[in-house]
Amino acid sequence: MSAAVRLDLDRIRARVEAVPDPELPMITLADLGVIRSVREGSDRVVEVVVTPTYLGCPALPVIEADLRTVLAECGQPEGRVTWALTPAWTTEWISEEGRRKLAEHGIVPPGAAGAPLPVRLGLGRPCPNCGSLATRPLGPFGSTGCQTILVCTACRESFPHMKAV
Amino acid sequence: MTSELPTATPGAPAGTRNHDIAEYALRLGDDALILCQRLCAWVTNAPTIEEDLALSNIALDLLGHARVLLGLSGRSDGTNRSDDEFAYRRTEREFRNTLLVELPSGDFAATIARQLAYTHYTSLLYAELAASADEGLASFASRAAKEAEYHCMHASQWTVRLGLGTEESHRRMQAGLEHVWPYAAELFEADDLTTRLDTDGTAVAPARLRADWEREVTRVLTEAGLTVPAPSWEATGGRSGIHTEAFAPLLAEFQSVFRQYPGGNW
């Protein structure tokens, strides 16, 4: 690969990583941890490899369209967006920066994946309003499929939490 | 469904034919697709707004599963049919879903009873399929297993809540279980196809899943103070395209827009 192409890939990668998530626009696709690679395929076409979060997530077609737009804007209208299901996306791939931005917008970021489900959901998710740890699940899904609604038994406010998966 | 969606998923590249995998993916995909349609009907009708959101989000996950599986089926059978073509261009006899998922939803308790049966099955199945020798099935299952586990938790929690709730909720939950249980058997039906796929490491012998499934649902039903039904008959037919009389109206509604605007995209 020539130095010019590599330079171009770096530029494209920076643009790709900065694309905001359609449903949680406060974080980028890089923050979300879904960009696997930006590379030149064997046919010399630039390829962006993305991992879907949830398989039925309505944001997926929007992400694909946004990435195509970025590729076109970078002079790669024939560029390719490829979805890779393996390894499966996990909330552990959300960056520290992404977690900070989610919290800033009132969405309690996910804890560790792999713990038994009720633990992942409830315990240890402090209320963003009053800091109480006495919170319990209110609904298994929130304004997006990847969120759940918890309610604080101390201040009685409900708040969204991104589920650990 | 739109046609431009995650189509470049891994799996058999176009031209690599494997009719066994095509048929197997079609069965699992049709289960997800038809249950998705049934669950969608709960929107604005569930007991609470949180439950409207829960059932519709579970339906959305199932639609995602169906799209990947039907796409895999189309790439494996050599026709390269899209998920839309499978969903909208087939007639009743060409669908391979179990009768369990096409049953009218009944009341909320019957819906939860069906969710309990189906989600325990998919949790176990997808966890095993994640190790499938087929790359397409394995990559699908590695992601879908996580979603199925969450759906399973949702169904189990409601089962316990209804079982231990009021006399009326207990009665309805037990009635829901009795209604759907004869249909759950079809999920575990073995035939030449499942035997071949189990032998070459592509799928799992249904009998093994059934023992684990019975242990898991018994654990939930015991916690809920409910009785494990002991049906005197078992439903069959869906895997060979013989459906219940409730299926044609479901399909007519599901395909109505496509039939009015063939090839339309939105």
UniProtKB/TrEMBL annotation, chain A:
One family name in Pfam for this protein = Zn_ribbon_PaaD
Give every PaaD zinc beta ribbon domain span: 126-163
Query: What SUPFAM superfamilies is this protein classified in?
Result: Fe-S cluster assembly (FSCA) domain-like (SSF117916)
Q: Where is the MIP18 family-like domain?
A: 10-73
Species this protein is from: Streptomyces spongiae
Q: Protein name, please?
A: Phenylacetate-CoA oxygenase subunit PaaJ
Q: Fetch the InterPro entries from UniProt.
A: Fe-S_Maturation_MIP18 (IPR052339), FSCA_dom_sf (IPR034904), MIP18-like (IPR002744), PaaD-like (IPR011883), Zn_ribbon_PaaD (IPR056572)
Automatic annotation (TrEMBL), chain B:
Q: Which residues form the signal peptide?
A: none
Q: What domain of life is recorded for the organism? A: Bacteria
- In Gene Ontology terms, what is a biological process of this protein? phenylacetate catabolic process
- Which Gene Ontology CC terms are recorded? cytosol
Q: What is this protein called?
A: Phenylacetate-CoA oxygenase subunit PaaC
* InterPro entries reported for this sequence: Aromatic_CoA_ox/epox (IPR052703), Ferritin-like (IPR012347), Ferritin-like_SF (IPR009078), PaaA_PaaC (IPR007814), PaaC (IPR011882)
Organism, by scientific name, is Streptomyces spongiae
